[in-house]
Amino acid sequence: MNSPFSKIIIALTVLCIFGFGNSNAQEATAEAQPIKLHLATGHGAPELETLYQSYMLPIEENFARYNIEIFQDNTPADLIALFMLKDVTANRFRNFSISVLAPQYWLSPILYPHYSEAPYGAALIFTMDTNPSDSRAIMADLITGLGLYAINQCDLATTHLQNVTEYAVVPDFLIETVSFYLGNCALAIGEYESAIQYFEQAIALSYPVRHSTAQAPYLIHNISPYINMAWAYAQLGQREQMNRIIDSLYTNIIEVEKAQNTNLTPLRISITIKHAQFLALFFDYEIAGAILAEAIASVVRTDLVNTYPPQKLAELYVILGETILLRYEWDSALDTFNTAIELAPEYADAYFFRGLTHYTLVNREAALIDFERYLELAPEGIHAAEAQQSVESIRIELQALNG
Q: What residue segments make up the domains of the chain, in order of their start?
């Protein structure tokens, strides 16, 4: 029987285990698709309407050039732009801001394929007190670029995002963010050297890097450019450079913990997970498993064990279990997935990977139960297609075996 599990590479290939690869990348497509934008004025200020319309016109013209429709409503959007009136004096707009909010998963499209529970994440706060024509042109390129990025049109988005960086009045933090998106576009098409340059620029312009001192270090909250740059180095086979990037994040945490007498274990764990994934790319499964086990131990032996969300801890156990699978240690992997399910009985991924392990151990009935449970919990989940195919194949196998 040619079951989807006849090739255990489904469970053992790091591309499948960790979700890496160009299938998760932002790629340009030839066929245009609509963009759903939520663009609105803030505070209900009627005097802002004319200004709002003057900003919308070049944005609409840009998208029209690409034959892309814009839909504006209050449902979840590809992009949100909120025009906020700050101060009006003598009928002159002295200062207003535009907040552009992107879905949380944008923060790192290559390495964070799963959507966040929070619908929207980091905001770009764009405040202008300059020539209105400059600010209109900047916003037109910014929103057009981010909108195209949101629908995987990186080839078109890059031109507009690069335009943003060339305006003299653009603040550093906006160039920092645009550089990150440009790096993601380069990463998605395999231009790793270019991606590294963009990520380096984003990091150099970040607030923690520009303002930290030995006596007063700032925490690097946004680790995404570091993680994606490390990924680019990994793709180039430059392990030493990859380790240098990851080590810089660990060092920052140690310095901030010491200076501020705080515990940053949750952030350290986030970095450890990515570190383990990178190590797996170099087939260092033993070290990857060791640092994941230490991350779990750091939760259990501290006060975090009482406050750390059970599903988060279960996720750690599942990632550890995936690493153990890569070492062909089936029984140990099974025990690890069992622990994850005990911690979070509603965590679907734990059932999927336990199902893989059961099938590898020729426990067909147990595998079937786990795959069915996964589909109950996550019918639209990332592994749903594989789980459904597995359920159908196992049922056929069991029928054949039972006559």
A: 18-205
